[in-house]
Amino acid sequence: TAAAGTFTTTAPGAGSPTPVPPSASKPLPAETPAPASQPAPAVAKPDIGKQSTPAAASAAMSYPVQGSIIREYAKGKNDGIDIAAAVGTPVRSAASGTVAAITTNTENIPILVIKHPDNLLTVYTHIDGLTVQKGDVVSRGQTIGVVRAGDPARMHFEVRNGFESVDPMKYLQ
């Protein structure tokens, strides 16, 4: 122990030698480039502006309305497809099922949901003149409403597996 009142002081940083940084004593390891990731498999994209045509009889679903696809599916951005069509054009059920819900969004635009086998749902928005009610059984191709006025006039169509949106084109081709 030091005697009372006897202390040795040094200037900051002067009391001990500065250690040599590890990077100065040995070279950095050689860089190993990350392995190139395989490109994602190409997914067929709908031809924007292409006229929708009746789905082949073998397709799981039929187009709900005839018109041009003006906005394609993009998970998290557009959970369905938008199809341009004249105001009043009949909107048809894409597949047989049961009307599960009819509601409106925050802009008071009707939303119709039809439940199908295998936990699939189809969602129809930007429609008016609904011809069905909750609980009604509908068949593929049955008129369920008409295209609502909008800018542009269009019909929004979604396919969901439970609550997860999926690309409707997989079911329409």
Q: Would you write up a description of this structure?
A:
This protein has a domain at 68-172: Glucose Permease (Domain IIA). It is 5% helix and 30% strand. It has helices at 22-25, 169-172, and strands spanning 68-71, 81-84, 90-92, 97-104, 110-116, 120-125, 127-128, 137-138, 143-147, 154-161, 164-166. The strands form 2 sheets. Strands 1, 2, 4, 5, 6, 8, 10 and 11 form an 8-stranded antiparallel beta sheet that branches. The longest helix has 4 residues, at 22-25. The radius of gyration is 31 Å and the shape is elongated. The N and C termini lie far apart (89 Å). The relative contact order is 0.19. This is M23ase beta-sheet core domain-containing protein. Residues 77-168 form the M23ase beta-sheet core domain. Residues 1-17 have a biased composition (Low complexity).
Short summary:
This protein is mainly beta. 5% of the residues lie in helices and 30% in strands. The protein has a domain at 68-172: Glucose Permease (Domain IIA) (Distorted Sandwich).
Please name the defining characteristics of this protein.
single chain, 173 residues, mainly beta, Glucose Permease (Domain IIA), eight-stranded antiparallel β-sheet, 2 helices, 5% helix, 30% strand
* Main pleated sheet: 8 strands, antiparallel
Overall radius of gyration: 31 Å
Count of DSSP strands: 11
Helix content: under 10%
Low confidence ranges: none
